Each structure stands twice: as structure tokens, then as C-alpha cells.
Amino acid sequence: MAVPASAQECANHLLSRLPEQEYQALKPHLTWVPTPLRMVLFERDKKIEYVYFPLSGAHSVLSIMEGGAMVEVGNFGNEGFSTVEILTGSELAIETTICQIPGESLRMDAAKFREILNGENELRRLVYRYLQAYLAQVSQSVACNRLHSTEERFARWILMSHDRAPGDEFQLTQEFLADMLGVHRPSVSLVARTFQRAGLLKYNRGVVTILDRAGIEEACCECYGVVRKQFERTIGKSVS
Known about the structure:
Layout: H1 13-16, H2 20-26, E1 30-35, E2 40-42, E3 50-64, E4 70-76, E5 96-109, H3 110-117, H4 122-147, H5 150-164, E6 169-171, H6 174-181, H7 185-197, E7 201-204, E8 207-210, H8 213-219, H9 223-235
Antiparallel strand pairs: 1-5, 2-5, 3-4, 3-5, 6-8, 7-8
């Protein structure tokens, strides 16, 4: 696969909003790469070698404890880019990031990315606007994980995954979802069965099929809508 020929053809929301001249100047520094399921993009405290601009798929930012327990603290897809901490000047990843829904990305050398952002350009403006929306997402997730039920958080996570999936079907094991929500697998199994009986989705052999998107939105807490509006205001993209 090749790097999209123009900004208009690019599926990454940030890159698609660049002036064509700026995109063409950036294009030689972009490489198309596949992002298979569970690919590790970054590891905590390891050097940030590349910046990823997803074209499809979704990636989870995970906080991993010493005992191996983990919970998702952020996620991103084609609305943004990876490792927002690079905007603070950090050369090391704060958390581990893995691919949760397989897809494709455009990859850029991290040193080149920093060099480009030293100038006054549209990419710089866009990535800092995205940083604002991403921080709002992380902040809302903290409140959501503390105050809302497993059912509500399950619905929110399914909606976020659906937003970034190419259709109504995507891969998602119960073990992985339990890690993302910070709960035990039996809790996920119980909620998944409840949603299936209600006709909201089908969950079989690690594959989720969305049947009633509106119904899942009704089952979700307000956090999905709050973050969605923040992204719309900040970067003009509907995502949570």
C-alpha cells in the first residue's frame, strides 16, 4: 500500500485537514504500515521512535501495574495520532500502547516530527488542538471508571470501538475487554450476555457485531457524548 496521494484522499483526520502544499511537503516523511491486532506500538519508559497517524483501526493506551494487571487510560484512531506526550518534549513513552482493532497507519520518524513542529505550520496547530481533546477524553475516562457501572462503561467502550471499526463487525476478545475495563472476565461475560439478549449486539468467538447502535447509546453513560462533543468542538471530528 502507498501513502495517500493527497490530503483529501487521506483517511487520517488531522492529515486530511492540512493545506495541500503542506501535506505534499510532509508526504516523503510518511510510511504506510499495517497495524495488526495486539501490535505493540510503544512500551512504557522506552524511546519513542515513531509517530503513528492511523488510517483505520484503533489503539489502546494502557497503564500496566507491577503485578501485570492493566487498564485502558486512553485510546485513539484516525481522528488523531499517537504518543501525545511527544508534544511536551518527552523522548520516552509514558504508557504502553497496543493495537486493539487491526488497521493501517502512516508512520513518521519521531525526530522528524519534532523538527517539523518547531516551525509555524498547520500540523502544529492541529496536533495541539487534538491534544486538548485527547486530555478531555482521559479526564472523562477517570470519572467514568470511578462513577459508572460496568454495563455503562461496556457500552461506552463498544461505541468507541464501533466508531473506529470499518463496519459493524470487529474483533474483541472478552479477556481483552476485561483488561480495558479493569474488571474480571466473568463480569464482561455477564454484561455481554445481557446485551445479546436485549438484541443490541452479537458476541461470538471474539467477534462483536453491532445490531442496535441506538440501543447501545441508550445503555451508555453520558461520558460518550461529553467526549464526542469535545472532539467536535476542538478538531471537528465526531469520536469518543
